[in-house]
Q: What sequence folds into this?
């Protein structure tokens, strides 16, 4: 039996978005919107979302335009920026999510890019709780050492050349990130080459982040292979009026060989970290 219900939601400009709803058998004790990392399809989070629903938490996931089940047959020439993702796709999904579980305590959980985009929301106060996982400032000098050493190759050679030739970023073929629309990749490149990262969008966006007053739990892994601990912490300078608590995961302390950038959501972390995730959202077993 399928653990989820497939939905098709309309973005603010009418673009169809694929979404999934994981509904517990009884009345949900909390509803959680899980927003994906850059280029990561919602199916990656299926085991984690299924487990949460079995613990009484209603979960919604979705694919941004150009990603996963919301992608066209060909990405070449597909018009989609990160701004579209934040102001059109995410905004529409949040409205649907809020209305679907009106009256149920609501948590925003963002993985990497998903956590970075929370500050774009028009009504962040719809969520009584925010949890970010591996979300940080992606400026290339704040990357983890191995990635930082390769970043110049990506941003000054691979990205410009491959997007120019393919009409999109062919990340799957290059073994980096995933396939991304050209506009989204160019925008992300601009952020990653700027010390303020998405603060590069200017004062208007910084003001949006300063409006956020939600308590934020920022979860980071000591062994994150993409972002340094400094890079992760730097993002929250933008959330200047929010109370931010950092929780660092040490793999050996939780009985795992690795956690890394993606490990919290992998089935291999089910015993070690998923019950802890329930504590992060106030839905303990």
A:
């Amino acid at each position: 039996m399928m653990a989820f219900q497939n939905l098709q939601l309309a973005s603010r400009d009418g673009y169809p978005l694929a979404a999934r709803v994981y509904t517990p058998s009884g009345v949900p004790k909390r509803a959680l919107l899980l927003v994906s990392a850059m280029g990561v399809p919602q199916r990656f989070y299926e085991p984690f979302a299924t487990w949460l629903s079995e613990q009484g938490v209603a979960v919604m996931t979705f694919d941004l335009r150009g990603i996963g089940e919301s992608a066209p047959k060909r990405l070449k020439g597909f018009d989609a920026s990160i701004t579209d993702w934040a102001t059109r796709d995410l905004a529409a999904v949040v409205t649907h999510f809020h209305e679907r579980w009106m009256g149920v305590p609501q948590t925003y959980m963002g993985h990497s890019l998903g956590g970075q985009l929370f500050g774009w929301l028009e009504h962040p106060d719809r969520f009584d709780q925010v949890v970010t996982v591996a979300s940080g400032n992606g400026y290339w000098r704040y990357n983890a050492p191995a990635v930082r050493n390769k970043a110049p190759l990506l941003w000054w050679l691979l990205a410009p050349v491959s997007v120019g030739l393919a009409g999109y970023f062919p990340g799957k073929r290059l073994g980096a990130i995933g396939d991304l629309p050209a506009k989204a990749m160019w925008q992300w490149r601009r952020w990653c080459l700027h010390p303020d990262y998405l603060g590069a969008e200017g004062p208007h966006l910084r003001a949006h982040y300063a409006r956020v007053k939600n308590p934020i739990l920022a979860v980071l892994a000591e062994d994150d292979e993409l972002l340094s601990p400094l890079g992760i912490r730097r993002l929250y300078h933008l959330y200047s009026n929010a109370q931010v608590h950092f929780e660092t995961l040490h793999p050996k302390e939780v009985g795992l060989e690795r956690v890394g950038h993606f490990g919290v959501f992998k089935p291999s972390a089910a015993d070690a970290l998923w019950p802890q995730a329930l504590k992060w959202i106030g839905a303990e077993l």
